[in-house]
Amino acid sequence: MKASIAAILFILLTFGKSFSQQTVNFDLTKLAVQGNLIVKNRTITVNEEGSKKFIELGKKMTATPVWLPIDNFEEGKVELIARGKDILQGSFYGIAFHAENDSTFEVVYCRPFNFQTTDSLRKTHAVQYGFFPHLDWQVLRKSHPGLYESGILNPPKANDWVTLTIIVDSKEIKAFINHASQSTLVAKKLNTSLKGKIGIFGFNSDAESLKIFPSK
Predict the structure, then answer these.
(1) How many percent of the chain have pLDDT more than 90?
(2) What is the pLDDT of residues 136-168, one digit of tens each?
(3) Minimal CA–CA distance to 79: which of 33, 9, 23, 40?
(4) What's the whole-model pTM score?
(5) In a 3-state reduction of DSSP, which class is residue 93?
(6) What residues contact 174, with CB distance under 8 A and at least 6 apart?
(7) How many CB atoms lie within 10 A of CB 212?
(8) What confidence category does residue 64 fall into, taking pLDDT thresholds of 50, 70 and 90?
(9) Which residue from 73, 120, 200, 202 has the least number of CB within 10 angstroms?
(10) Domain residues of the chain, as ranges?
(11) pLDDT at 15
């Protein structure tokens, strides 16, 4: 009981009122073991390879993110370290943010199976921004082709560990791959909400950590 109370107090102090004033590095395996990730309609498992520990996002396709124990992210930079698989339409990973609930949120995600494809069209579909549930990739690709998804200038391999960085402000979203100086994607923000939950989006992929640098 004392350990549980201590864990709750730690979360409140770390991710509560002080969250907007400090950088926070989320070790996803620790949060999973402690039961502090919010997991609904899906499964995750903890695994390790060598010195790297990570959570595995289940193989079942689902649009429900794995939520972190905060609900007040506004603006700033977010970095996710993750990796996918070279399975056509079978592996995704990304960052969900400004969420109102389990189905209404913005997201930037990667399609690793398109990173190094020889298909010129699929190459331009490597990184995607959307506002679920109504403005997903299908709607945006049809109504605004090329504006909300893009290719990667120097793409990693499909199964490489990748750092996906997004910069969120009130008007636009920028995405970067592996700390590149040039953005991979710049998209107009489609959600009028400027605050909400943040989490890990995707399936059949692995995620190691997520770091948030809130804007001052």
Answers:
(1) 87
(2) 999 999 999 999 999 999 999 999 999 999 999
(3) 23
(4) 0.91
(5) strand
(6) 166, 167, 183, 185, 186, 187
(7) 22
(8) very high
(9) 120
(10) 2-214
(11) 47
Amino acid 121 reads L
Grouping H, G, I as helix, E, B as strand and the rest as coil, residue 136 is coil
pLDDT band at residue 213 using 50, 70 and 90 as cut-offs: very high
Cβ count near 102 (within 10 Å): 17
C-alpha to C-alpha distance for 68 and 58, rounded to whole angstroms: 17
Structure tokens, 3: 């350990």
pLDDT at 8 over 90: no
- In order of 11, 108, 139, 154, the CA distances from 69 in angstroms are 7, 19, 31, 34
In angstroms, the CA 106 to CA 188 distance is: 12
**Residue labelled with tokens 């794995």:** 66
Sign of CA dihedral 30, 35, 39, 42: positive
Separation of alpha carbons 127 and 175, rounded Å:
8
2-214 sits in which CATH class? mainly beta
Structure tokens given for 45: 């498992």
State the DSSP code for 21: G
User: How far is it, in rounded angstroms, from Cα 72 to Cα 78?
Assistant: 14
DSSP-derived secondary structure letter, 113: G
Token output for 46: 């903890």
Alpha helix positions (H), the chain: 2-15, 28-34, 120-123, 137-143
